[in-house]
Amino acid sequence: MSRFLSSEARCLFPYTPGEQPRDQQYIKLNTNESPFPPSPEVLKAVTQTETGRLYLYSDPTCAALNGAIAERYGLQSENVITGNGSDEILAFAFRAFCGKGRGAAFADITYGFYEAQAALFGLEALRVPLREDFTLNIEDYINLSATVVIANPNAPTGMTVPVTDIRRLLEHDPNRVVIVDEAYVDFGAESCVPLIQEFENLLVTQTMSKSRSLAGGRIGFALGARELIEDLNRVKYSFNPYNVNRLSLLAGAAAVKDEDYFQACCRAVQDNRTWTMKALEVRGFTVLPSSANFIFAKSDRISGGELYRKLKENGILVRWFDRDRIRDFVRVTIGSREQMVVLIDTIDRIGLRNEK
Amino acid sequence: MSRFLSSEARCLFPYTPGEQPRDQQYIKLNTNESPFPPSPEVLKAVTQTETGRLYLYSDPTCAALNGAIAERYGLQSENVITGNGSDEILAFAFRAFCGKGRGAAFADITYGFYEAQAALFGLEALRVPLREDFTLNIEDYINLSATVVIANPNAPTGMTVPVTDIRRLLEHDPNRVVIVDEAYVDFGAESCVPLIQEFENLLVTQTMSKSRSLAGGRIGFALGARELIEDLNRVKYSFNPYNVNRLSLLAGAAAVKDEDYFQACCRAVQDNRTWTMKALEVRGFTVLPSSANFIFAKSDRISGGELYRKLKENGILVRWFDRDRIRDFVRVTIGSREQMVVLIDTIDRIGLRNEK
Q: What phi and psi, each to the nearest 5 degrees, are found at residue B84?
């Protein structure tokens, strides 16, 4: 920290991304990437000819990509904004819909980035505790003045909030924006996108980093009423007008058009999730119900930190959060079946095979 | 604008990027892109194999790219941060080094984005008038408490501030950061990078959008003392940890390593600039001295707006700013020699051939 750092920046809570050690090859089950390569259509779209055009700016309006996303979700382009990952989109939303007198409210156990971004704009952050069983009680959010952010499915638990609950919130407090972060929705949860036509206070964010196998392309988007999207563009054009690069614009559009590949990848992840959950439960683990491409699991016979370390020693990276309420758990990304088999074999090898 | 927009976001000044009309093919001399494709090394780096790896996140530390940049500039990796274009880096710097009681000071005629970004963080913006001849009087910045941002060369004038002036500012006010935006420095201006070893209050930003022919790759970077870079990373990890996508990391490293190609492109732009300036001066234009890949020119015989419109009718896009002090000028990006020949022919055709 330099002596020049502003007092505002001293109050930040920088997010720690999942580790990416380079000392050896790991099976990476710690950052919720897809185990599958991007659609073959992406490889066809990112050509040498297009790489040769990188001397030209990207389209600041992201017209082709937004059009493809709009078509996929039955919306108009005016209902879509694309960003450099959904993290950027979330930052735009915090700036647009929060400020003095209107903070941000989110669960105590959720994506750690909401807290970081609230601090970025000096916003009041209201952490609303989940119930003991990690379910979200929508009544806790009724009548709050803060803008609400709900990850659905939630991270790192993988658990969902019923869309009927979110509808109740939207109806009850029409003068307050609800942001539903659907980064993991494609792995079996119900989406709030159909509610967009009905509620002008609903913003849904999604990402191509998980179900579209494009984490390294950095493409996130938000869907909502035209006026909300205009507000987000107002922030975007005050921050970085050319926020999505040329090749990602192409890759994203190709990915979103390949519905069959997308469906096949999502199904495979769900199958592997079911298999892995059963294998862990047989071994005495408690696994929270997951609708995401990861599971949150704990064992009475080993602490979360110890399990994380033993798996890492054996070449498998999972994510462990050294935080109250969730310290006993590890978050395990659902990889390919082969990776999941190695995970379970390793768990047996480190002595957690069920003795029953 | 929705009724949900925060009062902070209502005060934004969104930046208007150069137009990108799609009604016909234009000779684009309006956004200061390079007329040359990226280095052949870039095409070699962005392979199908690498595109196939987009399912994995990019390296949040940008280690390989930062290492390549550091080597090119005789610095260490700890002196480098890379962003999604230098606009993102500038935003990080505004958040890190400005706040309550410390606004941002910049010229009245300069890159319009400083104003937009200052507003993004609710900062006080101090616009310091350039002299009548558009030169910057460094004395105006001495003893200001605000963080200073100087575009060198300046946009849209193309004119430079002597490095000795910036040195004087750094020496005189060691407790205040000076940000030197060197987006256009490679086209003939003197860089402040050698001063980094000497001054812990100097941050230099650069971009690969111009001299490295990678506008569509969105790669900007800042160079400075380790502590300043740490501060910027603090903001980055509160905003978007994976801020540079995988393919741009590769493209950027390949571009920065191809010194010969870079030098050849910069020389060609300078040659074309000299040729174009002479051709315009022969035709009675006033052209400001430019060290950038654009020129700022006006004619007594046609208004800036009219020249912009006539060129557009003839298939050539240039940039015109409908603003006090510079309304008479157009900003013309230096393109290929062929493009410059068409520009001059068109100027003659629309009746601005010198009658002398």
A: -80, 70
B319, B156 contact by CB (below 8 A)? yes
Q: Six-digit token pair at A319?
A: 């994510």
Q: Is A51's Cβ below 8 Å from some Cβ in B?
A: yes
Distance separating the N- and C-terminal Cα atoms of chain A? 54
- Write out the two tokens for B256: 């920065």
- The tens-digit pLDDT sequence of chain B (356 residues) is 899 999 999 999 888 888 888 777 899 999 999 999 999 999 999 999 999 999 999 999 999 999 999 999 999 999 999 999 999 999 999 999 999 999 999 999 999 999 999 999 999 999 999 999 999 999 999 999 999 999 999 999 999 999 999 999 999 999 999 999 999 999 999 999 999 999 999 999 999 999 999 999 999 999 999 999 999 999 999 999 999 999 999 999 999 999 999 999 999 999 999 999 999 999 999 999 999 999 999 999 999 999 999 999 999 999 999 999 999 999 999 999 999 999 999 999 998 665 54
- Give the number of beta-carbon pairs within 8 Å between A and B: 303
Give the closest residue to A222 by CA, choosing from A210, A242, A212, A208: A208
Task: For residue B324, count other CB atoms closer than 10 A to its CB.
Answer: 8
B-contacting residues in A 97-136 (Cβ below 8 Å): 97-100, 102, 116-117, 119-121
Amino acid identity, position B300: D
Q: Which residues of B touch A84 (CB under 8 A)?
A: 84, 218, 240, 243, 245
What's the token pair of residue B95? 């958040």
Please state whether the predicted TM-score (pTM) of the whole model is above 0.90.
Answer: yes
| Residue A17, number of CB atoms within 10 A of its CB | 17
Query: Do A157 and A109 contact (CB within 8 A), yes or no?
Result: yes
What is the number of H-type helices and E-type strands within chain B?
12, 12
**In this structure, are residues A123 and A103 in contact, taking their beta carbons and an 8 Å threshold?**
yes
**DSSP code at position B130:** P
User: What end-to-end distance do the CA atoms of chain B give, in Å?
Assistant: 54
Q: Are A232 and A89 in contact (CB under 8 A)?
A: yes
Question: How many angstroms away from the CA of A143 is the closest CA of chain B?
Answer: 16
Quote ipTM for the complex: 0.96
Q: What is the DSSP letter of B60?
A: T
Q: Which residue has the tokens 């082709």?
A: A64
d(C-alpha A56, C-alpha B47), whole Å: 19
Rounded to a whole number, what is the distance in Å from the CA of A351 to chain B's nearest CA?
31
A282 close contact with B: CB closer than 8 A: no
The reply to whether residue A217 touches residue B54, judged by beta carbons under 8 angstroms, is yes
For tokens 């009087």, what's the residue? B137
Contact indicator for A178, A169 with CB cutoff of 8 Å: yes
Residues forming a β-bridge with B316: B27
